[in-house]
Amino acid sequence: MVCRACLRYQNQNVTAVPGEHLFQSELWLPHPRDLVFPFFADVRNLEAITPSFLKFTVLTPLPVAMRAGALIDYKLRLRGIPIRWRTRITTWEPPVRFVDEQIRGPYRQWIHEHTFEERDGGTLMRDVVRYVVPGGALVNFLFVRRDVQSIFDYRRRRLTELLGAMKSPAGF
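Above: the chain's sequence. Below: its structure in token form.
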């Protein structure tokens, strides 16, 4: 059964199709999209918005030319287990949206769409992640869902700290 309820500015988990899980998050930032989007176009900023317990590091030489087809390699630790992760940018439409898809990593599928909408004098940033985990619904329920929620909760706090008080493009 698909849950269609959506609370604005709240994170949620919704099952979309058997085996696929849907995670959605929204955050409004008090700055125009043209100032917010460049933060996400710079791969170096991923480390600043990822919880330290993941020991997340970008391996791809910097700077990364963001475009459709760009490949980005990372290393991290999930529950203490070292993981290599590679994503491909499959859609690049600045300053409106981009999509990254895992092509190597811990998930059977990870498709993450980032959208940026001008709203109420600022930017409404949305994340929609469609993912499939080894071990299915039970593993998702016991471990993954909470981990994804925790990572995005941290990301929300860090983005609010880093971009909520941003004064200018140089404020990044």
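Residues 1-15, 168-172 have pLDDT under 50 and may be disordered.
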